[in-house]
């Protein structure tokens, strides 16, 4: 029985190598992009990987454009959705989160599948920060190459928010542009 299992593994490995070709890594045979997304189009895993250059449901901002947008009235809400470990009813920070001054940090709301409590947390904070006005400008970001912000924009658009901006470069791009970052504090995970 053991010989059959080893033979099947070798046969399977050979098939993968043949599919991947001489210039490709063998893991590419497993990288079917349709498996990375839910039926609704949310990214489900590998959140820290290259993102599209733009978002269909938001205006994508450069750092210069974000700086200009911050001078407008009303001043947009800056929503940081960088994930954070949630354990035993507490956010666990391994290191400080540095983000754009004036940002509100709502961790974990950019996951591809949200538990009902996290969805309520996200909706509640959006409603509170925009005074329940779906036309209020909202800038959503996390770090560069982070699908969490992409998912959060998609979710906010699905809920009817119409003035959405995606700062694709996130806190990394802000820092690279020699802009000041400040220590963030996550919004309490409450549903009040």
TrEMBL record:
UniProt keyword list: Signal
Source organism, top-level taxon: Bacteria
SUPFAM superfamilies cross-referenced by the UniProt entry: Rhodanese/Cell cycle control phosphatase (SSF52821)
Signal sequence extent: 1-18
Species of the source: Neptunomonas concharum
Sequence intervals crossing the membrane: none
The protein, known as: PQQ-dependent catabolism-associated CXXCW motif protein
Rhodanese domain mapped to chain residues: 72-183
Pfam families, A to Z: Rhodanese
